[in-house]
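WARN no homologs supplied; continuing
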Amino acid sequence: MALAMLVLVVPPWPAARGLLRNYWERLLRKFPQNRPGFPSPPWGPALAVQGPAIFTEPANDTSGSKENSSLLDSIFWMAAPKSRRTIEVNRCRRRNPQKLIKVKNNIDVCPECGHLKQKHVLCAYCYEKVRKETAEIRRQIGKQEGGPFKAPTIETVVPWFGRETISKDVSRFHSTLKMW
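OK structure emitted
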């Protein structure tokens, strides 16, 4: 004799309780306990649920009322708009002055290169130029020193044009001092 077993894995949503109750009642109706001519099995269909302990309670109502569970128990209700927004409300929401792009009044011309920049911020074009010069200076210092683990005991100084240096080990590079 074959035994029927049902295994369900249900996420622990609050609305799943009513859905499980409906399916459990349908299963109990489809598999009657006493079939004519066959002895009743010692146990019924098994229900395995992943979730809190409230899902393992029997779904039989002890209140005595045999009314069918409502349709709302077996449906997962989703958030949906109940009425359409008017065009005036939509326009007010979209054109809200707090959401509009703000006009910048702090734009200035870079005195070094002439490109536009924000006040009190380095010009991006000049910064990129200085970054490339710094990379070139570091590469030349690396060639002079012979590698990262062969650094000399005295520091390497990079003088700018128009400045005096006191150090003995001076590397000469052709660079001009920036205003900032």
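The longest helix spans residues 124-145.
OK
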